[in-house]
Amino acid sequence: MIDNKKMVEIMQAIAKRMEKEKEFLTELDNAIGDGDHGINLARGFAAVEQKLPQLADKDLGAILKGVGMALVSNVGGASGPLYGTAFMKAGGALKGETDIDAEKFAAAFEAGVEGIKMRGKAHEGEKTMLDAQCPALKALKEALAAGKDLKTAMGEAVAAAKDGVAYTKTIIATKGRASYLGERSIGHEDPGAMSSLMMLEEITRVL
Ligand code: ADP
Ligand code: MG
Ligand code: MG
After folding, report:
1. What is the total count of domains within the chain?
2. Residues within 5 Å of ion ligand 2, judged at the Cβ atom
3. How many Cα neighbours within 13 Å face the side chain of 177?
4. What is the CATH number of the domain that holds 176?
5. Distance, CA 53 to ligand 1 centroid (Å)?
6. Which residues form the DhaL domain (predicted)?
7. Which of 11, 103, 143, 170 is the most buried (most CB within 10 A)?
8. For the residues of 63-96, what is the DSSP string, one character each?
9. pLDDT of amino acid 134
10. Is the CB–ligand 1 distance for residue 29 below 6 Å?
11. Does the complex come out with an ipTM higher than 0.85?
12. H-run or E-run covering 99
């Protein structure tokens, strides 16, 4: 269902979207951080895009590991190591795989989310990217368990991630730079949750 060609297409779509949303994500980060989230991700995914031709013929695990490594080594901010770890862990879950089904996709997504939790020492409810990703993963797993196909299930995951982004507006940040603001972080959406939503939208569109 997802082979190397489709995986490369997904990464290209994410790279394009990050470039397009660079200013918007940076504006969100301006409000509660240091105003570089969009710049960080656009730079990181530009490096990913450059590396894709070398990765295109490899198995899915190797492609995702290469993507993760490009993010870790090209993004200065917190989001580089966090997203980098997520893609590397997802790659670890797909070692040697060349064409995966919905269940394997969900397992890789879960490995990525667990990687972020571990690396960021964070959990849901701290106003981070996890507040988009955790509800999305839960919705994906529930939809697949109910017998829905991957694209439909991912549609539900995207809807859950949207609610998650809206939820970040209502809570205090306790991780990352936004936590320095304490109460003043309320009323603003988390930039990392927003970029995660965008990535999920791109994956779903390409499927
Ligand atoms: P920096 O804060 O270093 O400038 P970015 O602006 O690129 O890095 O990324 C900020 C985003 O990273 C936040 O919006 C949040 O979603 C996410 N983030 C920060 N710290 C953590 C953490 N410990 N765990 C999970 N996500 C985090
Ligand atoms: Mg920042
Ligand atoms: Mg920064």
Report:
1. 1
2. 29, 33-34, 36-37, 77
3. 16
4. 1.25.40.340
5. 29
6. 5-205
7. 11
8. HHHHHHHHHHHH--STHHHHHHHHHHHHHHHTTT
9. 98
10. yes
11. yes
12. strand 99-100
Angstrom distance (rounded) from CA 149 to CA 134: 20
Q: What is the residue range of 179's domain?
A: 2-206
Q: 162-199 pLDDT, tens per residue? A: 999 999 999 999 999 999 999 999 999 999 999 999 99
The CA 36 to ligand 1 mean position distance, Å, reads 10
> Phi and psi for 190 in degrees, rounded to 5?
-80, 125
Shortest-distance Cα residue to atom 22 of ligand 1: 120
Longest distance between any two alpha carbons in the chain, whole Å: 48
What kind and span of H or E run contains 100? strand 99-100
- Coil, strand or helix at 150: helix
Enter the tokens of residue 84.
Answer: 């980098």
| pTM of the predicted model as reported, rounded to 2 decimal places | 0.98
The amino acid sitting at 111 is: A
- Tell me if 7 CB under 6 Å of ligand 1: no
Query: pLDDT, tens digit, for every residue of 105-157?
Result: 999 999 999 999 999 999 999 999 999 999 999 999 999 999 999 999 999 99
Task: Find the helix or strand (DSSP H, E) in which 3 lies.
Answer: strand 2-3
State whether the beta carbon of 129 lies less than 6 angstroms from ligand 1.
yes
Q: What does the pLDDT read at residue 113?
A: 98
